[in-house]
Amino acid sequence: MRAKRASHDPGHGLGDVDGLLRSHGLRRTPQRQATLEAIAELSGHATAEQIAERVRRRLPTVSASTVYRTLGSLERVGALCHAHLGHTASVYHVGRAGLHQHLVCERCGALREVEASVTAGFAGELRRRFGFHANFTHFAVLGECRSCAARRPRSPGTPAGRRRGARH
Amino acid sequence: MRAKRASHDPGHGLGDVDGLLRSHGLRRTPQRQATLEAIAELSGHATAEQIAERVRRRLPTVSASTVYRTLGSLERVGALCHAHLGHTASVYHVGRAGLHQHLVCERCGALREVEASVTAGFAGELRRRFGFHANFTHFAVLGECRSCAARRPRSPGTPAGRRRGARH
DNA sequence: CTTCCTGCAAACTGTTTGCAGTCCA
DNA sequence: TGGACTGCAAACAGTTTGCAGGAAG
After folding, report:
1. Does A156 map to a domain?
2. Taking CA atoms, what residue in A is nearest to B110?
3. Residues B18 and B88 in one domain
4. Buried b vs exposed e over A146-159: b needs ≥16 C-beta within 10 Å?
């Protein structure tokens, strides 16, 4: 990975995006450039809206649809990918899928990244027993983080009490 | 489970819903009755819309909002619960949460129920290592079913090809 | 100069909410 | 009777799409 770049690489660790675009017959546009930079700046998991806000600091008139289309294109060429962390909007991050997975607290929203190796054993079991190839990188593992679980000690049968903005 | 009923139990295996409602200060209405019967008839995992359609066979004017509010009430009193099987609408089913979990194929949508025991070991590991209490009953485990995985042999790095109506 | 790309507005799905009228207890 | 419940319409979030004009190559 990480092919050498001839020009225009802003050095955000995004790799040869220009080349990726070009090799897929896609154009390099200010909007796409700004989107890539925005994601790099946000350097984590960002929703389309957060990315759009960031993009508009540079190009104030970029529309939501362009952001969505751009994210789609960039994902298609392999420059980034998205994941679902619960009920809320999907989040995008740089790089290919499959590198890490997410544990998300349904109550406080806390996000913990874990290595793909963590789920490998379980995934193997599902594969052996059911022929099912689980993908824990695209959809998060939901549950309760340590502190939330401690705060509300196991009341059996209570289906994860509805809290705050947590519409389930 | 399956408390004895004094009256009105349609015998759908829904248990003492009347009592549940009453004990929560909620009323028994034709709409709620019809919703319960609809779910019992659908006897699986049904979306709010599927339930609404079924309800309207008996009460043609029931509105979507009533169905949603009814499902919410019934869930709050413990008569049913819902789960998320991917990008699509949530599905509702009779009974309390935590009894079974779902393996959902992201490509063909195939749904496989597995006993809660299947994930117990993995959940324990997450708890020990990260203090994270995973809940596999509310959010499904996504991936590829046996036949879809066979049809598209592992092309490494390809993030679950986009197909049919599968907007991710 | 020809595509691809963009912005705008509108549509869309799934779900929630405000309101005024209705009905159960 | 009074508060719970209902239907309607409107709003909501997140995302997609059709279209006409704009720009990359």
Report:
1. no
2. A132
3. yes
4. eebbeeeeeeeeeb
- By C-alpha to C1' distance, C14 is nearest to B89
Q: Are residues B90 and B119 in the same domain?
A: no
Please list the ranges in chain A whose pLDDT falls under 70. Answer: 1-15, 153-168
Q: Which of A143, A122, A159, A133 is nearest to B119 (CA)?
A: A122
Q: Which residues of A touch B142 (CB under 8 A)?
A: 134-135, 138-139
Cβ-based contacts of A121 with chain B (< 8 Å): 122, 125
| Residue A64 distance to chain B (closest CA, Å) | 17
Average pLDDT per run of 10 along chain B, which is 168 residues long?
A: 39 67 92 93 90 96 97 93 90 83 91 92 96 94 93 54 43
How crowded is residue B40: how many other Cβ atoms within 10 Å of its Cβ?
A: 16
Q: How many helices (H) and strands (E) does chain B have?
A: 6, 7
Chain pair A-B, CB pairs under 8 angstroms: 123
Tokens of A57: 């600091």
Query: What pTM was computed for the model?
Result: 0.83
User: What is the number of domains present in chain B?
Assistant: 2
Cβ separation of B144 and A126 shorter than 8 Å? Answer: no
* pLDDT at residue B87, rounded to an integer: 87
Chain B hits for A77, Cβ within 8 Å: none
pLDDT at A168: 56
Q: How far is CA B80 from the centre of its chain?
A: 8
